[in-house]
Amino acid sequence: MRRAQVYRYALPMDAGVVLRERRLKFREGLLIQLCEGEREGWGEAAPLPGFSPETLEEAQTAVLAWATAWRSGQAVALPGLPCADFGLSCALAELTGELPLTADFRAAPLCSGDPDALFATLSAMPGDKIAKVKVGFCEAVRDGMVVNLLLEGVPDLRLRLDANRSWTPLKARQFAKYVAPQNRDRIAFIEEPCKTREQSREFTRETGIAIAWDESLREPGFTFAAEPGLSAVVIKPTLTGSLDKVREQVAQAHALGLEAVISSSIESSLGLTQLARLAAWLTPQTVPGLDTLSLMQAQLARSWPGSELPCWPVEKLERLL
Is 157 helix (H, G, I), strand (E, B) or coil? Predict the structure, then answer.
């Protein structure tokens, strides 16, 4: 016998979280529970405002329709909305045991403010020191100075930078001017530094600083290809779609010798723990980009190891089905 339940959540965020010039006060999404006999599986469908092509209302309609059909015994295709497909396919993969339990809870710490706070985190970090810095919010010159300061201060540090296509070619050159040439090879990559892919390609040719594709993966007509200066692709499953599609993208990247980084779209702790399992399964040699729980004021259903945030049970949520 099949059972399906769907819950809607709204987790309060830290006051300073801004996405594409929009302040995010709550992270909203859906949790899906599928049961068959003694087995159960959970998934999360949480479109990211400003990034996901679907709204939460569209995702909710699709998930409820799919779950209703599934519990009646129908063989039903995934809805075709990225966050819904990812959440439902995760629930199915847990139900069948396809999603391994082993998780990679390493996370590249995110520096979104004072670099001194990142110095303290890095000094206590065992093993490979990898951190992420958001650039493009401040002046490009300041970004370059901060990045160079971090690299100078921690000699074994490698940085991942994310510009979200915010720089013009001039600003990108201003940034690079303030990063010492001897430090540039410790920038693992900059995600989409410029407004167009061709401008980003020109940036890596001029500076020798590696780049990664992120938004490009979700554009119509994008194809995976090895290119000079391209070192990685950043895969955000909530924005990508089903587990099968995520696996296909990882396989394509690895076949070309590119690093594939599983990255968060600010999911709840339940979604983040599933991404950690996905990373251990598909990209075991790569530290995932999952350091977003600190942006929230609570966890949900499953706790992230070591987090001191309160964990809300599903009974606290609005049940839709």
Answer: strand
First to last CA, the chain: 16
- Rounded to 10°, the helix 115-123/140-153 angle is 20
Read off the tokens for 54: 């679907």
pLDDT digit string, tens, across residues 210-226: 999 999 999 999 999 99
Asked about 25 being catalytic, the answer comes back as no
Q: Given 132, 134, 195, 316, which residue is catalytic?
A: 134
Tens digit of pLDDT for each residue in 152-190? 988 889 999 999 899 999 999 999 999 999 999 999 999
- Please, where are the H alpha helices in the chain? 56-71, 82-96, 115-123, 140-153, 169-177, 197-207, 237-240, 243-255, 269-282
Is the CA virtual torsion 233, 234, 240, 241 positive or negative? Answer: positive
- In this prediction the pTM is 0.93
Which one of 25, 195, 236, 245 is the catalytic residue?
236
CB 115 within 8 A of CB 150: yes
177 classed as catalytic: no
Strands 22-23 and 318-319: unpaired
Is residue 107 very low, low, confident or very high in pLDDT (cuts 50, 70, 90)?
Answer: confident
